[in-house]
Amino acid sequence: VDKRIYMVVNFLFPTVVFFVIAIVNKMPLMYPFILLLSLVILRAVLNYVGTIVGFKSMEEAPNAGYSLMIQKGYAVYTLFAAVLLYGSEVSVFKFFISGFILVCAGLIAWERGKKVNRINYRWVLYALTAMFCFGTIALSGKFFAQAGIAAVPQLFWISLATLALTGADTVRVRVKKQLMDWKIWALLCVLGISVSGFYFFKLTAEISAPNLGYVGTINAASNAVYTVIVALLFGDSLTWKKFAAVGGMTVGIALLLFS
User: Fold this and answer.
1) Are 152 and 27 contacting, i.e. CB atoms less than 8 angstroms apart?
2) pLDDT tens-digit series, residues 61-70
3) By the 8 A CB rule, do 47 and 7 touch?
4) Rounded to the nearest 10 degrees, how much is the dihedral formed by the CA atoms of 20, 24, 27, 30?
């Protein structure tokens, strides 16, 4: 499936879901033009750019895990930026725990592969760009919430604008029509619904967390969940190194949440 087709579905479902939720709960969707324009530019455009360059980085990297490690590094960026922008808390203990979780995520993502050299440095620039985009998106969500735009209206406008950008790009490059059976369409639908839930709970957590960088750190733990699920479903190898990293990450998240 072409990545642009996937992205269209990826943002079509959230657009519909958040629109329905807003209407049913009588949430306002119209806000001052400048505020909505800022929301679209800061979140939708960065979301689109970050997704595109993130895909390209993983495609060009010697191993996709290397790229993922860099992209997940936005947790550290937001951890400190939230202190400066919002006066959020960050104790020394939680700072080191966040670093420990990210190291564990790195160990899980890291695989033996081609050596990273100067010839293939471009994927690093893509990954760093994606990291900046996703980190700034996380930081701006809290700003717009404080400005009066709740999570659901934010997500509706972000999804709608990103869908429009993705659709325009799909038409521009003239993506070939692909014949897909019902199983692929069903999988895309399930992914679209899952993404809607992910966006909602992530933004809600970032708005309410004492420091939104903690949310990014826990999000990095998705590597652990992915590793275990793949190992169980497809019989992929789960080395002792990865098993120890999963365990360490689990302990780290527990300490981060309950300390």
Assistant:
1) yes
2) 766 666 777 7
3) no
4) 50
Q: Output the six-digit token pair for 101.
A: 């979780």
Task: Spell 224-234 as b/e; 16+ CB within 10 A means b.
Answer: beebeeebeee
Dig out the tokens for 80 from the structure: 């400190």
Residue 27: both structure tokens together: 């949430």
Q: Which residue has the tokens 């966040």?
A: 98
Per-residue tokens: 51: 């997704």
First to last CA, the chain: 44
Residue 31 token pair: 């806000």
The answer to whether residues 93 and 241 touch, using CB atoms and an 8 Å cutoff, is no
Give the tens place of pLDDT for each residue, 159-184.
Answer: 898 888 887 877 776 656 555 667 77
Give residue 228's pLDDT band: very low, low, confident or very high (50, 70, 90). Answer: low
pTM, 2 dp = 0.73
Q: What digits encode the pLDDT tens for the residues 7-54?
A: 777 788 899 999 999 999 999 999 999 999 999 888 888 888 888 898
Concatenating the DSSP letter of every residue in 152-174 gives HHHHHHHHHHHHHHHHHHHHHTT
Which amino acid is it at 154? Q
Q: What is the DSSP string of 95-126?
A: HHHHHHHHHHHHHHH----SPP-GGGTHHHHH
Whether 74 and 131 have beta carbons less than 8 Å apart is answered as: yes
Instruction: Count Cα neighbours of 145 within 13 Å in the Cβ-side half-sphere.
Output: 19
Question: CA-CA distance, 49 to 30, in Å (whole number)?
Answer: 25
